Amino acid sequence: MTGRVVTLTANPSLDRTLALPGPVDRGGVVRLGASSTEPGGKGVNVSRALAAAGADVVSVLPAADDDPIVTELRHRGLPLATVPVTAPVRTNYTLAEPDGTTTKLNEPGVALDDATRAALEATLHEHATGARWVVLSGSLPPGTPVDWYATLVRSLRGTGARIAVDTSEAPLLALLAAGPDAAPDLAKPNAEELAQLAGVAEAEVLADPDAALAAVRTLHERGVAEVLLTLGADGAVLSTAEGVWSAQPPRITVRSTVGAGDCSLAGYLLADLDGQPPAERLRAAVAYGAASASLPGSAVPTPAQVDGPAVRVTAGIAGASTAAHPVPAAGRDAR
């Protein structure tokens, strides 16, 4: 495994998971089960999963040196590059029901002034130079220009790093509307985000494979080289210049979906760091996402908890107007 990954989490959080005994009882008194708190934010989750696999990763985030999130991440041995802010990092709450249903309650986060954003950008550039990947991940803090990710992608081109972006809503729309020079090398939308970008209904993307492929092509037309479309329990689709693949996850007992998409991105990057071809990068992404969903709260899996061979990878998308055939797991006999 070679190459460094740098993640930016502009809106980090402490993720508090509250275990409910049953479905949410609005207006009632709920006796909680075991609860947990993890350092979070999408980029932080990616970093934690990469670090658990032994990857070289640096997390860039705004936080005071004595903030609990910094203390927790340092305790876990995660390399950090922080830019100080005066307010504490936000807390996000997850209500976890026994059947795996999760309800998120997210605080808005700490507003960043121009000087803090400039310091974050400078810190990001410092660590991105010579890195294999830079990951821009998660929501933007209050008051941040909606096109900030587009600005960062343009400014990072000279570092030599490839750029992955995982965000949603207005920042995602602004990123893809900014032109090919702001397009990331890798985008990781889910079905809702892809539908929004393509201007179609989410149900259409989920029900019609040809519609999903057409929506993915709109991202390529805007300059995105690789699209990793995550579909939760339905697996994921990867589209690159080399082709299109889909993957089905192994059967698991879902405990929490919080951070599963972030772990999917981490799995993809780990396989890329190992020099794996697209089908194996997709396999790793789906395997990591499934492993994450089988764990409580926002825990990230270790490599020992990831079952790559259990993931079924197929060229194309079943039901689409392209041929499909199974792709063997890495190391298996392909005959």
UniProtKB/TrEMBL annotation:
CDD domains to which the protein is assigned, alphabetical: FruK_PfkB_like
Gene3D superfamilies per record: 3.40.1190.20
Domain (Carbohydrate kinase PfkB) spans: 24-303
Provide the top EC class: transferase
Q: Cross-referenced InterPro entries, in alphabetical order?
A: Carboh/pur_kinase_PfkB_CS, PfkB_dom, Ribokinase-like, Tagatose/fructose_Pkinase
**Which classification does the entry list for the species?**
Bacteria, Bacillati, Actinomycetota, Actinomycetes, Geodermatophilales
Does Signal show up as a keyword for this record?
A: no
Matches recorded under SUPFAM superfamilies: Ribokinase-like
Keywords, in A-Z order: ATP-binding, Kinase, Nucleotide-binding, Transferase
Indicate the segments annotated as coiled coil, or none if absent: none
Any idea of its EC number? 2.7.1.56
This protein is called: 1-phosphofructokinase
Oxidoreductase keyword on record: no
Name the protein family: Belongs to the carbohydrate kinase PfkB family.
GO cellular component terms given for this protein: cytosol
